[in-house]
Amino acid sequence: QIPKTQKAMVFEENGGPIEYRDIPVPKPASDQILVHVLYSGVCHTDLHAWKGDWPLATKKPLVGGHEGAGVVVALGENVTNFKVGDYAGIKWLNASCLGCEFCLKGNESNCAEAVLSGYTHDGSFQQYATANAIHAAKIDKSANLAAVAPILCAGITVYKALKVSEASPGEWVAITGAGGGLGTLAIQYARAMGFRVVAIDSGDAKEKICKDLGAEVFVDFKSSDLSKQIVEATSGGPHAVIHVAVAEVAITLSTEYVRPAGTIVLVGLPGGAYVKSEVFTHVVKTINIKGSYVGNRADTAEALDFFTRGLVKSPYQIVGLSELNDVFKKMAAGEVVGRYVLDTSK
Ligand code: 8ID
Ligand code: ZN
Q1: Ligand 1 environment, Cβ below 6 A
Q2: DSSP state of 330
Q3: Distance between CA 190 and CA 199 in Å, rounded?
Q4: Does the keyword Ribosomal protein apply (predicted)?
Q5: 106 half-sphere exposure, CB direction, 13 A CA radius
Q6: What DSSP state is assigned to residue 130?
Q7: pLDDT confidence of 9, banded at 50, 70, 90?
Q8: Are residues 165 and 268 in the same domain?
Q9: Percentage of the chain surpassing pLDDT 70?
Q10: CA of 218 to the centre of ligand 1 (A)
Q11: 102 lies in which domain range?
Q12: What is the rounded (10 degree) CA torsion for 13, 15, 20, 23?
């Protein structure tokens, strides 16, 4: 039975109060599914969306969230690829045109018509959310819906970033922000893909989780000789660096310690940040710096398959949807170890 109203976390203005409210349950358009979202991860992107610190406006009022895992409860009349009762995921890329040059080549995140869950379209911080059926993630019936939620953004994103890093099995990959939501999954995908991991973050709790998840080396970003420690531990620098830290300084520093001919992949999106790379070193070391933005439908299916096969696990803790404000406070202070997942029933 689909109710007429539901609970949601809503804000009217960027940086303004986020309120636990009753709002109408949306109706799926002809090409959409309606998902009863049981759990939603909280990504640092949701914090950026609320703060409004990116050069892209959010919808207002906004229901954030883009790691929603749940059950399909209704279908638009043109939907043929889902049935009521299937498990489905609400991800960042809610829809795209599917016909432009970028969509045709599998670069759906670059589509000019891309619709973004929890940013330009109400997302998963509500009990019922809509998504384009072609883009919605298919989740295996064996999945624990709370555990799979973080895969829907964090997992897909880091898996894609590791692919585009072009690191080879046996090579070193450094991960900045390794103890956070994207980082803890990046360590595991990296291991599953055969890479050796240097985790960079701060504090004992993050060191412990990074090592437990398979990082061979942990370096505290607050130490003064960070570059030297990383170069020594990897006998010449990591072949790839995946930046999920929300820090411009981390990016600049990596141009020092990355291995010659190595690749730096930008994923974290600190507001107003620039990449600073000294040109002589950049050329002579022949380093590559590239951006990576979520993943396409194939990356989604592949990232979920690693999860279904038990190769990656979400290090998550569950709190109620109504407690989102507390999660944002911890996240802004860099105190989130792994991922918070919201139970939309509380
Ligand atoms: O498609 C994309 N490119 C994409 C997808 C999803 C998320 C990008 N993101 C972006 C988010 O918008 C955010 O900017 O990735 C970034 C990280 O998201 P997250 O993993 O959800 O954030 P978190 O859980 O807060 O973890 C961030 C970690 O960075 C560490 C913190 O200690 C924290 O553990 N960190 C910071 I802040 N400064 C650091 C530094 N200088 C650092 N780690 C290493 N060095
Ligand atoms: Zn995200």
Answers
A1: 43-45, 48, 153, 157, 176-177, 179-183, 200-202, 206, 221, 244-247, 249-250, 267-269, 292-294, 331, 334, 336
A2: H
A3: 11
A4: no
A5: 7
A6: E
A7: very high
A8: yes
A9: 100
A10: 16
A11: 5-153+295-343
A12: 20
State how far the Cα of 129 lies from the Cα of 39, in Å rounded to an integer: 12
- CA 250/CA 255 separation, integer angstroms: 9
What is residue 140's predicted lDDT score, i.e. its pLDDT?
Answer: 98
Residue 88 CA, ligand 2 centroid: distance in Å: 17
Rounded Cα–Cα distance for residues 178 and 200 (Å): 6
23 within 8 A of 344, measured Cβ to Cβ: no
* Cβ–Cβ < 8 Å for 43, 15: no
Rounded to the nearest integer, the mean pLDDT of the chain is 98
* Torsion angle defined by CA atoms of residues 170, 171, 173 and 174, in that order, rounded to the nearest 10 degrees: 110
Same domain, 217 and 316: no
Q: Which two structure tokens, joined as six digits, stand for 104?
A: 């045709």
Say if residues 315 and 292 touch (Cβ distance below 8 Å).
no
DSSP string across 69-91? EEEEEEE-TT--S--TT-EEEE-
Q: Domain boundary residue among 251, 267, 291?
A: 291
* Number of helices (H), then strands (E), in the chain: 11, 18
Which of 246, 292, 294, 327 best tests ligand 1's pocket when mutated (most atoms within 8 Å of CB)?
A: 246
What CATH code is carried by the domain that includes residue 111?
A: 3.90.180.10
Residue-wise pLDDT for 71-114, tens only, equals 999 999 999 999 999 999 999 999 999 999 999 999 999 999 99
ipTM over 0.95: yes
Same domain, 210 and 283: yes
What confidence category does residue 246 fall into, taking pLDDT thresholds of 50, 70 and 90? Answer: very high
In tens, the pLDDT along 182-198 reads 999 999 999 999 999 99
pLDDT at 178: 98
253 CA closest ligand 1 atom index = 41
Does the pTM of the predicted model rise above 0.95?
yes
